[in-house]
Design a protein that fits this description.
Zinc Finger, Delta Prime, domain 3; Rossmann fold; globular; about 350 residues; alpha/beta; five-stranded parallel β-sheet; 5 strands; 3 domains; 15 helices
Length: about 350
């Protein structure tokens, strides 16, 4: 019950409980870290602790009316608690891109000008805060600069990229960093909740890269089979097969969800290539069941080429919020490899 139910980030719980017990909770936090590491749940539990009707020792009960309503409001689409506000990218009227526009920030700021309706302290959660553009961030900064104590409002900015936030915003918030979750913990969750056998659970836990949320997504999909198909195609493309590269780019680039999954896998795969090139089977390798493929590809690609391709993958991931063309981006990714083979 309470914070003890949230045991995937013990250092975060320690910080927040200590703040609750001392009566010195911040008016604005940045929860930073990998997606799927519990940032939203921690924000919701902080809101529950700030408003619990039977709060003891900095902890919430999960049973009272306030706790129940706030917990139900974890999903922005189902939130009916008036003093829990979610600011979510892409939800402003007529907005098409995955950003938080200035008008949405201003509307949120206007809605908190009066005291909370029923809560002791209102909570505003800004999802993927790093996708606010500069104008939106400056509009939010004005809100942060206003005297907030009379409005009894706490802000929590959720982000995987805190460096994208203005230094003036970061300086006015307390940043709490969320760590990657241990593979053993994720493997145990996959085995108990999804009944995935040991080897499959271990592979998915490794591929989740410390993200419980990603592990759950992978468990619902077919990544283990997708991964084998992708590696077969990558093998051919890295060997200079232009037709396979073009077909792979077209098939994967046509779906944003598949494109994102493929990019995340590519990033991990290229990390494995570097690890194998540096230390062989003793390296910190995630795809341990694909050692033969790693051996073959490290014989084709130099470490400098692998690092360059990793930078391209990260750049594509960074541009995902602005809806890049997946097929064209992947063709650009494969082009230097195909040209290198052609010019040999």
């Amino acid at each position: 019950m309470g914070w003890s139910s949230f045991d995937i980030q013990p250092q975060v719980v320690s910080i927040l409980r200590r703040a609750m017990n001392s009566g010195r909770t911040g008016h604005a936090y940045i929860f930073s870290g990998l997606a799927g590491t519990g940032k939203l749940e921690a924000a919701i539990r902080l809101a529950m602790s700030l408003n619990c009707e039977t709060m003891r020792d900095g902890d919430h009960c999960e049973q009272c009316r306030s706790c129940s309503m706030i917990w139900k409001g974890s999903n922005p689409a189902e939130n009916n608690y008036p003093d829990l506000l979610h600011l979510v990218p892409g939800e402003w009227e007529k907005q098409k891109s995955y950003t938080i526009v200035m008008d949405a920030v201003r509307a949120m700021s206007a809605s908190i000008k009066s005291a909370p309706i029923s809560a002791r302290r209102r909570m505003v959660i800004i999802h993927d805060a790093d996708v606010m553009n500069e104008d939106s961030q400056n509009a939010f900064l004005k809100t942060l600069e206003e005297p907030l104590e009379g409005l009894r409002t706490t802000f929590v900015l959720l982000t995987t990229r805190p460096d994208k936030l203005l230094p003036t915003i970061r300086s006015r918030c307390q940043e709490i960093k969320f760590r990657r979750i241990a593979p053993e913990r994720i493997k145990a969750m996959l085995s108990s909740e999804y009944e995935i056998p040991g080897e499959g659970a271990a592979i998915l836990a490794a591929l989740s890269d410390g993200s419980m949320g990603k592990a759950r997504e992978l468990a619902k999909g077919d990544l283990l089979n997708e991964r084998r198909e992708w590696l077969q195609a990558l093998d051919a493309a890295y060997g200079g097969d232009a037709e396979t590269a073009m077909k792979l780019a077209e098939e994967i680039g046509s779906s944003r969800e598949t494109f994102e999954r493929f990019l995340e896998f590519l990033l991990l795969w290229h990390r494995d290539l570097l690890a194998y090139a540096g230390a062989g089977e003793d390296g910190h390798i995630i795809n341990l069941d694909m050692l033969e493929t790693l051996r073959r590809q490290t014989g084709i690609l130099s470490q400098q080429t692998v690092m360059t391709q990793m930078e391209k993958v990260q750049e594509m991931l960074d541009y995902l919020p602005v809806n890049i063309r997946g097929d064209l981006a992947l063709l650009d990714f494969f082009a230097p490899l195909l040209n290198r083979r052609k010019n040999r």
